[in-house]
Design brief:
This protein is mostly helical and 364 residues long. Among the domains are: 9-58, no CATH class; 62-146; 173-278, hpI Integrase, Chain A. The protein has helices at 41-58, 62-70, 73-76, 80-97, 110-125, 127-146, 173-182, 185-197, 201-205, 234-241, 261-274, 284-295, 300-307, 311-321, 327-338, 343-346, 353-362; strands at residues 9-15, 21-27, 33-34, 216-220, 227-231. It is globular, with a radius of gyration of 29 Å.
C-alpha cells in the first residue's frame, strides 16, 4: 500500500505478528482513532465526527477564530507561501491564547497581554519573529472585525521592535560580477531573470515556457494577482532562447527538477558566501532592478508596468534605494558641466585678495 499523507491526520505503522504492516490513522488535533481506510465511508464519518468535536471544544475561543480565519475566502486569496507562514505563526499563538474567550478580545487591556507575549518571543526568537507573529494576529483580528466577529482590533498599530533598513542594500555591479564567477549555471540564470524583470523569487521559480512567447514574459503575480507583460531585453532573450526546453519550467535544478523554495534559498546563500557577498538576498535584486530602470531614465509608471508595483510603492522604493547608487549623481554633474546656463559657475575659482587687487590694477 502506498504511503498516505493526509492533512490533519497522523499515520502510525505497526508490524503484526505475521510480519505484515498495519496502518492506523488518528485525528491529529483530538487524538481520536479513525477507522477504515482513507476515502472510505467509515473513515470520512469518523473524521467528520472528530472535526465536530474539535469545533465544539473551541467554540467561542481564540482557537475558533483562527480556524474560521484560515478557512475564509480572504485567507485563501493570499499567496501560498504567505498562507503557510501565517499558519505557522498562528499555531504558535494557539499555545498561549488558544482558550482565550472571544469577548476578552474586546477589552483594551488585551493589548498588554499580546505585547507581553511578544516580548517573551523576542527574547527566544528575535525581534523580527516576534513582530511578525503579532502582525499576523493583528491581520486576523482585522478580518474578525470586518466580518462582525469582534468590534475592535486592540492590537492594530503596535510599534515594531525590529527596525530593518535595507535602503542601501542593492546589488552593485561588483556584487553581480563576483556572483556570476562562482555560482552554478542554474543560479546565474535566476539572477539574470530577476535583474531583467524585477519579479519575486516565487514567480520566477514558477515561470513556465508558456509564459514566454519569444519576446515577452507574461505572468500573473502570485502575491498581488496582478498581470504583468514584460518585454525582454536582448540579453534576456539570448539567455532564454539558448536554453533547452526539456522541462515545463524555465528555472530548474541541475537535475532538471523544480526548485523547492528552501533548497533554492540554501543554494543561493552558499553561492553568495562563495562570492564573498554578505547581507544581500535574492529579494534585493527586485529593488536593484527598479533602481537600474530609474537610472536608465524610466518613469515611475514605466517601472510599475514591468515590476507590478503600485506607483506609490515604486516611489517609496526609489526614495530608499537610489541613496546607494552614484550613477544619477554622476550624470547630473556631467549635465551641469556641459550646460550653457551653468557656464559661469564652472569658471569660478578661488582667489586671494592680493590676486584680486593686482587683477583690478591691471584693468586700469
Amino acid at each position: 500500500m502506498p504511503k498516505t499523507k493526509i492533512p490533519g491526520v497522523n499515520t502510525v505503522k505497526k508490524r503484526l505478528a505475521d510480519g505484515s504492516v498495519q496502518r492506523y490513522y488518528y485525528h491529529r488535533a483530538t487524538g481520536r482513532r479513525l477507522n477504515g481506510q482513507p476515502g472510505s465511508v467509515e473513515f470520512l464519518s469518523d473524521y467528520v465526527a472528530a472535526e465536530k468535536t474539535l469545533t465544539d471544544r473551541h467554540a467561542g475561543t481564540f482557537n475558533s477564530l483562527i480556524r474560521d480565519y484560515t478557512l475564509s475566502p480572504e485567507f485563501e486569496k493570499l499567496a501560498e507561501s504567505t498562507r503557510t507562514e501565517y499558519r505557522r505563526m498562528l499555531t504558535k499563538a494557539e499555545a498561549k491564547f488558544g482558550n482565550l474567550p472571544i469577548p476578552a478580545l474586546e477589552d483594551p487591556r488585551v493589548r498588554h497581554d499580546f505585547l507581553t507575549w511578544r516580548a517573551s518571543v523576542s527574547r527566544e526568537s528575535g525581534d523580527r519573529e516576534a513582530d511578525n507573529r503579532l502582525s499576523v494576529i493583528s491581520s486576523m483580528l482585522t478580518w474578525a472585525r470586518e466580518n462582525g466577529r469582534i468590534l475592535h482590533n486592540h492590537v492594530a498599530g503596535f510599534r515594531r521592535l525590529h527596525k530593518a533598513d535595507r535602503s542601501e542594500l542593492i546589488w552593485l555591479p561588483s556584487h553581480i560580477e563576483a556572483f556570476m564567477k562562482v555560482a552554478p549555471l542554474e543560479l546565474q540564470r535566476a539572477l539574470i531573470l530577476a535583474l531583467h524583470t524585477g519579479q519575486r523569487q516565487a514567480d520566477l521559480l514558477g515561470l513556465s515556457w508558456n509564459n514566454y512567447d519569444g519576446s515577452t514574459i507574461s505572468l500573473r503575480q502570485g502575491k498581488t494577482k496582478r498581470r504583468v507583460d514584460i518585454p525582454c531585453t536582448a540579453a534576456l532573450r539570448r539567455m532564454l532562447d539558448g536554453l533547452d526546453r526539456d522541462t515545463n519550467l524555465v528555472l530548474t535544478t541541475k537535475t532538471k527538477l523544480p526548485w523547492k523554495a528552501r533548497y533554492f534559498k540554501a543554494q543561493w546563500e552558499s553561492a553568495t558566501k562563495a562570492a564573498g557577498i554578505s547581507g544581500l538576498h535574492f529579494h534585493d535584486l527586485r529593488g536593484t532592478a527598479i533602481t537600474m530602470l530609474a537610472e536608465a531614465g524610466c518613469s515611475t509608471p514605466q517601472i510599475a508596468a514591468i515590476t507590478g508595483h503600485s506607483l506609490k510603492t515604486v516611489t517609496t522604493i526609489l526614495d530608499k534605494y537610489l541613496a546607494r547608487t552614484r550613477t544619477l549623481a554622476e550624470e547630473a554633474v556631467a549635465l551641469f558641466e556641459n550646460a550653457r546656463s551653468t557656464e559661469f559657475a564652472n569658471r569660478l575659482q578661488t582667489a586671494t585678495q592680493e590676486t584680486v587687487s593686482v587683477g583690478a590694477k591691471s584693468l586700469k
